[in-house]
Amino acid sequence: MDPHQLRLLRELGERGSLAAVARALHVSASAVSQQLSALQRRVDVPLTERRGRNLVLTGAGRALAKAAVDISVAMSSAEQAVSHYLQDPCATVRIAAFNSAGLTYFGPLLQALSGEGRPGLICHDRDVGQEHFPALTADYDLVIAHRLEHSAPWPDTITALPLMREPLDVAMSDRHRLADAPSVSVADLIDEEWVSVQDGFPLVPALQAIAVHAGQPLKVTHRINEFFIAAAIVAAGPAVALMPRHTASPPPGSGIVLKPIHDLPLARRVDILCRPEALHRTAVQQVVTTLRRVVIPV
Questions:
Q1: Per-residue pLDDT reduced to its tens digit, 41-72
Q2: 92-294 belongs to CATH 3.40.190.290
Q3: What is the pLDDT at residue 227?
Q4: What are phi and psi of 215, to 5 degrees?
Q5: Pairing of the two strands 240-244 and 159-173
């Protein structure tokens, strides 16, 4: 049964006439009558009867009107529960990120959100192809995703909040012939052995762009999604790889150096994806604000 129609039945019982109900709710008497007629069609016994010029409740109508009070209380309780959930700053927030973003951001984010009055954070690592990131918003409140700078935007069915623009550099051993150069060109890279990610992952088009500018396919020897495994291969030499400048930057002493490509600047966009309604929650908004604060400024 329609809660609005039940409310009108209750109001009729308490106010005594269609006109009084209409005045109280700022609608026409005919609109009230139509809604009560629709309610009547859903039950097998009369809910109202004429008594003189007034429409009054029958015994069945009074019983249903009394039940409408309980329904109204339950609806109010449900609305308050939803309001509390939306406004609760300590509610749990589920967040997913691709591997290097999780490694970079989860620790600082958890530290920044520790203490009383902060959201509870549940972290997940999800390394998926670019086209699969939007679907993750069905399972997580927030998803840290990445795409190449000039790739197609995220679908407009989700909300995408920019987090950072991250340049992509060529990683090579510090013993490589180009290790002392301040930058490299596409021509320098034509004959190099490459470490690539698996097909379908966001860095593949960047490698394809290098191949297009070089005018020939790249010699891809290894396919590794995890940047730190790729770094181990690069450090051993002679292979090179594309790596993000900040979220996967090799630490000092790793035996790896990063070189920008001066004639083909490459970058990726790191964004926060979510369903639009997720941002109605105070806890989710607080996590977004904190995440933007701990992200490396670029």
A1: 988 899 999 888 888 899 999 999 889 888 88
A2: yes
A3: 87
A4: 80, 15
A5: antiparallel
For 31, counting Cβ atoms within 10 Å of its Cβ (0-12 exposed, 13-18 middle, 19+ buried), the class is: middle
Do the strands 120-125 and 142-148 form a parallel or antiparallel pair, or are they unpaired?
Answer: unpaired
pLDDT of 232 higher than 80: yes
Helical spans, DSSP H, in 197-270: 204-214, 227-236
Residue 78: pLDDT over 80: no
Give CATH 3.40.190.290 domain extents, the chain.
92-294
Residue 292: pLDDT over 90: yes
Residues of the chain with CATH 1.10.10.10: 3-87
Tokens describing residue 194: 């490459």
Strands (E), 37-87: 48-51, 54-57
CA of 39: how far to CAs of 46, 56, 64, 191, in Å? 10, 15, 11, 78
Fold of 3-87: Arc Repressor Mutant, subunit A (1.10.10)
Mean pLDDT of 269-281: 93
User: Three-state DSSP class for 77?
Assistant: helix
The pTM score is 0.74
